[in-house]
Amino acid sequence: MERSSRDYALWTIAIALVVIFALIPVLWLISISLKPPEALTDQKFIPADISFDNYKSLFEGGIDDSPFIKPLINSIGIALITTAISIVLASFCAYAIARLEFPGKRVILAGALAIAMFPPISTVGPLFDMWRALGLYDTWLGLIIPYLTFSLPLAIYVLVAFFREIPWELEQAAQVDGATPFQAFTKVIVPLAAPGVFTAAILVFIFCWNDFLFAISLTSSDASRTVPAALAFFTGESSFTAPTGSIAAAAVVVTVPIIIFVLIFQRRIVAGLTAGAVKG
Amino acid sequence: MTVNAPANPAPPEAAPKGASSRTRSERKLAWMLCAPAVVAMLLVTAYPIVYAVILSLQDVDLRFPDEGGFVGLSNYTAVLTSDLWWTDFFNTVFIMVISVAIELVLGMAIALVMYRAIFGRGVVRTSVLIPYGIITVVAAFAWQFAFAPETGFVNNLPLIPDEKDWFGGRFSSFAVIIMAEVWKTTPFMALLLLAGLVTIDSQLYEAARVDGATAWQRFTRITLPLMKPAILVALLFRTLDAFRVFDTIFIMTRGALDTESVSILGYNQLISRLNLGLGSAVSVLIFLCVFLIAFIFVRGFGAKVEEGRPGG
User: Fold this and answer.
1) A33 and A98 housed in the same domain
2) Which residues of B, range 241-270, sit inside 8 Å of A by Cβ?
3) Is B147 on the interface with A (CB under 8 A)?
4) Which of A1, A11, A15, A18 to mutate to test the interface with B (most CBs of B within 10 A)?
5) Residue A130 sits in the same domain as residue A255
6) Count: domains in chain B
7) Which residues of chain B register pLDDT less than 50?
8) ipTM score here?
9) Are A219 and A225 in contact (CB under 8 A)?
10) Which of A110, A177, B162, B262 is a good FRET partner for B71, with 20 to 30 A between their CA atoms?
């Protein structure tokens, strides 16, 4: 096929448009977060002066007085714990679905799919009521439980898709070669399954990290409020200053590490996001 | 099949009908492995939805804990005869239809760019993953700051009136909300469509080209029909997701100026007003809407959901 320079020009424009569109909000947040308060309303995309005051104010006052540190700890802790539990439960379930024959397999997959479609708002009222009665309102566990429920379908689907690709005969081959069943599993199967498990873990973590509805409905204080919910309730330094700068700085702090992480593991994430989308 | 089976310690399913002890133990193991996940999934869905139905039939208002009792369907009639529900329902469907339509077109374009690009494929894939990695609330703030008349750069752009107050009107608010939603979720659509695109046999395109088909004809006669299953699954998941729109509206307008979605209405009744009866009626109605949308896609359009996957 011949490639004209016109083709190159068109592709360059198309690619540039996609890249710019994807990057604008991130660059814009970085820009506002670096603007000193008096320059906030200059409407410029690129800040004229740079100040790190917004970032300093986020961490001012240490763990007790900072509006940001506790939510950040809550977000990281809750997302990590949920991810760990979700991946363990989903791995068991996905292993059974991928490798064993049993009645009810299709029901479990269909049920997981139904839960993925389930509107979370429909459970918010009952959970609010139940959690208050059970003492789970405004606790880490109170968020971990719903996150677990709604992340499991995602984890199960991704893991089933990966586990179906694993050449399980290798396990038996290793045993024939004299490995114990335990060795065969840890030395042969675990390394093969690890990439899929890791991918599922990234997706579950991002799911928990992103949630807002449960985070504002089932928490009321810094005891368990996560970053998205805290951002929505951010107030300015004084009641006369808008919290725009602090919100932008906090947004950058929680966004940039995740973006770097996503970009490092992009191949895995793409594979995970589209796992099972197409039956090969 | 073979008479002299190889030295395989555990022959695969050739079990007699009555389920041998091996298949029975396999079943038992499978159920034990699945049980924790199944229980965890039902814990916060099956029981709460039943509880929501019960609450929706009662007069439960936490501000007036002494009142209460069974009131039949009166919460539902109160919701369904209120203008607010129908306004919010319209808003939700409006945002859903427009944003999913734009996402489909844009997602298809990006998928084609990723699939056909002569160069820069990696750059495009890298950049589309950025919106995926960003918290929806953060993206909503970014776009809100960008469009806000005082702080934003958008009104400074050419062709856009300098004084435009985007959040001062209902439909201009919708425009910004839809744009933020589209930005956040198009990558997912594009990746799902790309996964469908790569399964198409490239020989079909070659043959069509030899027969003189134009690029547009190849797209409408080969790409679209063969991608129908992938498109339907992507549409189903995105439509259901868009119907639940909450985060972006909550951050941008909090539902002011008639921009509420049904999820915001539910939240306001349940959490802000603590009216669990009315709020649960709204919740159950949202659940029924989602069920109906899924039903229409699966039965009406023939979406093969089993081949789909939960959204991320």
Assistant:
1) no
2) 243-244, 246-247, 250-251, 262-263, 266-267, 270
3) no
4) A18
5) yes
6) 1
7) 1-16, 307-308, 310-312
8) 0.86
9) yes
10) B262
